[in-house]
Amino acid sequence: MSKKLFSLGILLLFSAQVLLSQVSTKVEPQDEKKTTEEQNVNPVSKPIETKKPAVTQPAPAPKPTDFYELYKSSQVSDRRKAIDNIGRKRDSKDAQILIDALSDSDSGVKVSAIDSLGLMREQLAADKIILALKDKEPQVRQSACVALGYIGDSK
Fold it and tell me: What are 113-124's pLDDT values in tens digits?
């Protein structure tokens, strides 16, 4: 098996060397004088104009208070975005919101909340995260295992 791998490695190195030698281009000096036909070609009177994309300002970042309102949205994508951003702050004052998000109907919201609580090592959330080990979604169960490892609860 190792002979085959060695042979394959040699073959790959050789192929790469061949490809690199084909790709590299040499700059050749231009002819001393252009032919009379080339000299008589009329240049384009106007250079070709290329349109530059309009410069736009990035959308303003939402205010932190907007995420709390966004979490109350009926749209799953809004709730996920809100929990992601609230969790990124890693502020223990937001732990209760993240714990409440563990009851959300969307597994993505739950995973985001569990991940954030685990990274915050939030002991208050340990019991709720233990309940998430029985969730029907494997991503939720996996996140719960990892979060409990971070929290280090002896339960």
Answer: 999 999 999 998
